[in-house]
Amino acid sequence: MTTFVHCRGCGVQIHETAPTCPKCGAPQHLAGASGAAVTGALTSPPSDYAKTQWYRRRWFLIVSLMTIAPVAALIALTGPMYYDAKGVVKTFPKNFRTSIVIMSVYYLYTLTTPVGSSQQMLLFLMTLVASLVMGFKR
Ligand SMILES: [Zn+2]
Fold first, then answer.
1. Which residue of 7, 18, 29, 59 shows the fewest CB atoms closer than 10 Å?
2. What share of the chain is helix, strand, coil (3-state, %, to 5)?
3. Which residues share a beta bridge with 89?
4. Residue 36 C-alpha to ligand 1 middle, in angstroms?
């Protein structure tokens, strides 16, 4: 059976067994070779994981918070936030929005300060509790 794939370089349809793209010449079989390497890396993680850069280990958290936190803060700052209470549209109290902004700023602050994970977790919980207390106090 003949299968066609898209070129990694230019996106044109080429035969799946083609070693390089006939149009742009980009190599096509990187996935097969590096796929095995990735599998090997996953089954045997490096022992010096803790020594790698903190931002490389926490990239997902960083990316999530860097995108979610500012957007949440922006929404909270620019107007009322609504939620659905059994079919009735309600708004969050202003204090709740303030706490979202505070938490967002805190998130971004902690991401730039690589401290110990347990210390950071404690700070995070304290901020969370403070934000909730602030948010629901009307
Ligand atoms: Zn190509």
1. 59
2. 55, 10, 30
3. 84
4. 24
Tell me whether strands 13-15 and 4-6 are parallel, antiparallel or unpaired: antiparallel
What's 1's DSSP letter? Answer: -
Residue 24 banded pLDDT, cuts 50, 70, 90: very high
**Is a pLDDT exceeding 70 seen at residue 106?**
yes
25 C-alpha to ligand 1 centroid (Å): 6
| Distance from residue 38's CA to the centre of ligand 1 (Å) | 24
What amino acid is encoded at 26 in this protein? A
> Contact, 120 vs 129, CB < 8 A?
no
- How many Cβ atoms sit within 10 Å of the Cβ of residue 101? 17
Phi, psi of 81 (to 5 degrees): -110, 135
In this prediction the pTM is 0.35
Q: How far is the CA of 116 from the centre of ligand 1 (A)?
A: 46
- Ligand 1 midpoint to CA 24 (Å): 4
